[in-house]
Amino acid sequence: MGAASFRIILGPRPRTDGRYAVVLRITKNRVVRMVPTGVHVLEKNFNPDATAETGKWVRKGSTGAATYNPALLNLYLKTHDYALHHPAADVEALAVVARRIAGGEDADPAAPDLFELAEADAARQRKLSTAEGIRCAFNSLRKFHGPGPLPLPSVTRAYFQRWDNWLRTQVGSLNTVGVRLALFMGVYHRALAAHPDFGPSPLTKYPVPHQRARKQALTADELRRVVALDSLPPRQRRARDFWLAQFYMFGARSVDVVLLKWDQIENGRVLVEQRKSGKHINSPLLPALSELLQPYRAEGRRYVFGLLPDDFETRSPERQHKLWRAARKRIHYALPRVAAAAGLTTPLQTHIARHTFSRVAYAATKDARLIQQMLGHSKLDVTELYLGELTTDETDAGAAKVYGSATTAATTKP
Questions:
Q1: Which of 69, 103, 127, 320 has the highest CB neighbour number within 10 Å of its CB?
Q2: How many CA atoms lie within 13 A of 380 on its CB side?
């Protein structure tokens, strides 16, 4: 593991008053983090050639130089000293320490606060959904733990077991409990890697709960009832049409239909780039789908179902994430009412459109690899989970074909 390097520099953009933030730039293993120092100066008053030996980053005679330079030197030296004494600390841990020093706290407290480390961990995640999951898991932990810090040594196996038991009383799904525990363990083990003095982990081989959900799909009769629904309120009509569009587009995922634009529908085809895998699914514009979409074309929106603002792509990634999640929630809230109107016994959820398509397609083709391509799965075994187990009638029919042909071959004389 390489050594960390530190520099006091100006931030990239000035404030409205023309002053720049002075930041501590921390680099380790080619990962860079910028830590605000709380100092703001004009560009002309900053000396970019200053070092820890001179300690004169704010030019002599500038406003606040007598106060700023000692504070910057203190931050630089203490953070550098911490890095020397904790060579296993990664750049995230060093950034946490630097923020603590800048705030006037001790650089090396008895034990780091796991809540602080979790927030830093979430901030460096590339996928917003992962960051959101980490924050959700630690929000649940905060409710269980109460106010105050959570020092790393406080996380024992018994403590973790108590939180696990508490989560099971608060969360309806055992899989959701497992996801939150797994996200916590990921943050905790990364924190221990950065602070090896507090290891080893007491959570090794902890049995995280997991329950494989049964893949549900509408029956042929239920599907016909959904298609035949009429006289629905506007929100329920949009949700019903959204669900059917998923079904008609090779079982497209809900996020891909939320993001579907009119320019993706042309020449009798619908081209979808799967947000999850990046694969392109090119499905035919079926007459039933074309008729279904006509009322929405008349609305003149950029996105087919009008669930996102037309300037969606200009928003920040964080705002985009919130917008498409809110759009999916509107569909999810309306679908149970659609199911009630159709008299369904199977829950009507967006992903069930994908399961229903796979079952209908398999019944028509008996070709799992073709369905794998249509769904955009990378592995055939994932597709097989969607298809579920064969019925007794299907296995009996298969047996008749196998044994019938074998018997015929054995008894036929040359």
A1: 69
A2: 4
Asked if 20 contacts 27 with a C-beta cutoff of 8 angstroms, the reply is no
Which of 230, 231, 240 lies closest to 337, judged by CA? Answer: 240
Structure tokens at 184: 């916590």
Q: pLDDT digit string (tens) for 99-127?
A: 888 887 765 556 788 999 999 999 888 88
> Given the structure tokens 């002053």, which residue do they identify?
19
Cα within 13 Å of Cα(13), Cβ side:
2
Per-residue pLDDT at 177 exceeds 50? yes
Residue corresponding to tokens 């939180």: 163
Which residues lie closer than 8 Å to 358 by C-beta, 6 or more apart?
217, 251, 371, 375, 383, 386, 387
Q: How far apart are CA 90 and CA 110, in angstroms?
A: 18
Give the model's pLDDT for residue 389.
Answer: 52
Q: Which tokens belong to 206?
A: 């902890």
- Tell how many helices (H) and how many strands (E) occur in the chain: 15, 6
Q: How many residues does the chain have?
A: 414
* Cβ 215 vs Cβ 386: under 8 Å: yes
pLDDT digits (tens, 9 = 90+) for 35-62: 999 999 999 999 999 998 888 999 988 8
Rounded mean pLDDT, 228-232: 89
The first and second tokens of residue 243, run together, are 């669900």
* 317 vs 129: CA distance, rounded Å: 11
Is 79:107 a contact under the CB 8 Å cutoff?
Answer: yes
**Dist. CA 155–CA 144, nearest whole Å:** 13
Question: Which pair of structure tokens corresponds to residue 162?
Answer: 């108590």
All residues at 6 or more sequence positions from 339 whose CB lies less than 8 Å from its CB, including other chains: 346, 347, 348
Q: Which residues contact 72 (CB under 8 A, 6 or more apart)?
A: 8, 22, 37, 39, 55, 57, 58
